[in-house]
Amino acid sequence: MLQHGKDGEVATPFWLHIVYEFLRKGYLIVSPLTDRFIDFNSRLEFAHRVALISDEIYQSTKESCRGNYVYPDPNNNLCLDNLQRFDEAATKITLDAWANEKEVQEALHVREVCFHIAL
């Protein structure tokens, strides 16, 4: 059933505005994994940029592995040790738990918003 707004014009449903904004900003629904090497290799840099790992772990791993974190040289013990340190540091962090902490939400100015979209 259509709802009518001012002057008898048809009102656009709220959910349609959300879909329009989503599409206008250029989001695509595709497989997030496009290339194993590129996608997995970028995790170290991402973890460093968002401060999930220390500068020391990042720099040491970057230098010893020469930018190849997915298929490291099995004879490069320093690289393998650094990747293990990275894995240990990264697995200690659970993003779901981190993002749901009240202090984190307050620091990021997350507001509690609840709305229901009826389709």
Automatic annotation (TrEMBL):
State the superkingdom: Eukaryota
Stored InterPro entries: AB_hydrolase_fold, Peptidase_S10
GO MF? acyltransferase activity, transferring groups other than amino-acyl groups; serine-type carboxypeptidase activity
Per its UniProt record, what Gene3D superfamilies does this chain match?
Answer: alpha/beta hydrolase
Which is a Pfam family this sequence falls into? Peptidase_S10
Which Gene Ontology BP annotations are present? proteolysis; secondary metabolic process
Query: What family, per the record?
Result: Belongs to the peptidase S10 family.
- The name this protein carries in UniProt is Uncharacterized protein
